[in-house]
Amino acid sequence: MSDLVTFGETMLRLSPPDERRLEDADEFEVLAGGAESNVAIAAQRLGMPATWLSKVPESPLGRRVVSELRGYGIDTDVVWSHRGRQGTYYLERAGTPRGTKVIYDRDDTAFATAEAREFDVDRVQNARVFFTTGITPALSSTLRDTTASMLKAARQGGTTTAFDFNYRRKLWSPEEAEETLTKLFPGIDVLVIAARDARSVLGFEGDPRQLAHKLGSQYEFETVVVTRGSEGAIGWHDSVVHEQGAYETDTVSKIGTGDAFTGAFIARRVSGDDVPTALEYAAATAALKRTIPGDVALVSEEEVEAVVSSGGEELSR
């Protein structure tokens, strides 16, 4: 059994080469990408056996996703469906002022119909950590119930539950997200949330340290991690706040940075690290991810250790 079990949809990402426009592209790079599988891979790269649970169409595209994820070394436990389609997204890369553009195409997918009864609950209850994100219940009313059921099953089995708030404005409104996700909070032990989401979706006020303390106190989480982009992250645990800065990095791709951070944080906590040390390794993993194309943090434990020990100095020096 895996120490970490994650639950969510992984899409196929189609990207024109270089900074080509989508409307002008005549070829695409194809990669798999999804928050929950990205977290599983990052954790696995830091030595934590991980399983990704999902529902996938029995089709060439569905098999393409599963095959790629298996190639990264994680276990995949999927329900194969003969109904619904494979979710995709399109990424158009560009610098300022155009900016990177993302277009989701994930309506009527097989995953949107996933129900808790379709999965092996023992997988969840025998894991040390069960992880999912706020993206999953945003995808369908069915998945709102499924997410709640999976978190409940994990808690009943004594499994630690970890949740990345991960608000996506292209999927639902702040009001919908707040109403749905706060109902899940009683079943969550570890919350990861961006400072901007705590303010704009949940209506909390204050600096990141205050946000972490307010969230932890109000909802009785065991641990709260508030991410703050280029300024690093704040960790709250046992009513104590810990601050972690970001390591300097040259950004090749920022997609998946937050997932790399979260996967590393979970892996290091499970390995026995305290919150400040886990935050260090999470920040180092996130910095390395920004140097890597695609969605996935293809890092090694040795690289992450080197970033932490060097304080972020270039590893090849």
UniProtKB/TrEMBL annotation:
Gene Ontology MF: a single term: kinase activity
CDD domains membership: KdgK (cd01166)
Residue ranges annotated for the Carbohydrate kinase PfkB domain, each copy included: 1-295
Top-level taxon: Archaea
TM ranges: none
Signal peptide per UniProt: none
Keywords of the record: Kinase, Transferase
Pfam families, per database record: PfkB (PF00294)
NCBIfam families cross-referenced by the UniProt entry: KDG_KDGal_kin_Halo
Family, as annotated: Belongs to the carbohydrate kinase PfkB family.
Name of protein: Sugar kinase
Source organism of this protein record: Natrarchaeobius chitinivorans
